[in-house]
Amino acid sequence: MFVLPLANASRIVNRVRLPTDQRQYEAFLTGCNIPEHALGPCREAWQRARSAQPAATRPAPHHGT
Asked: What pTM does this model have?
């Protein structure tokens, strides 16, 4: 089990920064009393959020010829 330092939790709660990785994200959710059985949708949301790129940095779609 990963223990999230109080300073990191405070920065996340106060919107100073986001969790740096999934382990930190899940430690934060656990600290917020999110039950283990509810973490599945949270994990999926984390993956979607982390894989999203701003449109300006997204590669142009390839339309093969």
From this structure: 0.67
